[in-house]
Amino acid sequence: MPVMNFESTLPMGAAELVRASAFRRSLDEDSRSDDDRITSRLSALDPSLHQDLLRFEQKGRQSELLDQALRARGFAVRFDRAPGVGHEGRLVERFAAEVVRRAAVAVAPEHPARVTFRSVRAEDTSTYGVRLERAGASDAFVDLEGKDGRVVVHAASGVRAVVLKPGALGVASGAPVEKSGPDTVPVRWE
């Protein structure tokens, strides 16, 4: 399977990311300078806002909802709960190495079964073998899925037509097209 390289998502002229060793040193210095202070960016918040955020996280609902939503969409998810920690830097630090190891071997499929694509720039018109023909200058959006040998159009807006390359969505070229929502857009194969 070919490895895909993606362009950086950092804006031009963005500040350079802090090296992990420098971040670790700053945490150590912070913890030595004031033992009573939480060593995370949350400590810089207004105390009232900080308490509201901690109270909201203690319920754990947003993390659980995200976990459920990702699993429902077929993602392999590992959800670790650390009681009383919330989203503090020390929790991120604890799992960062594992996240980096997993990301290093992650490979995007050449033809994913579902493509949800929003194009906000005129030059962004294709991904994963799905090409949009924009209806105008406004944003363009499509949500397509290859399912049981057919193409299912879940949603489309700002699109005049969709053109699929052979193998797109993991279905055979010329597969039938079915609409599952009120949005209609012509879909054709190259």
Structure summarized in a few sentences:
The protein has 190 residues and is an alpha/beta fold. The chain has helices spanning 20-33, 47-59, 61-72, 89-105, and strands at 114-119, 126-127, 130-134, 140-147, 150-157, 159-164, 177-179, 187-189. It folds into two domains: 20-105, no CATH class; 114-189, no CATH class.
| Rough outline | elongated
Strand content: 15-25%
- H/E series: HHHHEEEEEEEE
C-alpha Rg (nearest Å): 22 Å
Mean pLDDT over the full residue set = 79
Structural class: alpha/beta
Per DSSP E runs of 2 or more residues, the count of β-strands stands at 8
Largest β sheet strand count, sense and barrel closure: 4 strands, mixed
For the record, give the distance between the C-alpha atoms at the N and C termini, rounded to a whole number: 23 Å
Total domain count:
2
Strand order of the largest sheet: 1-4-5-7
Poorly predicted segments: 34-40
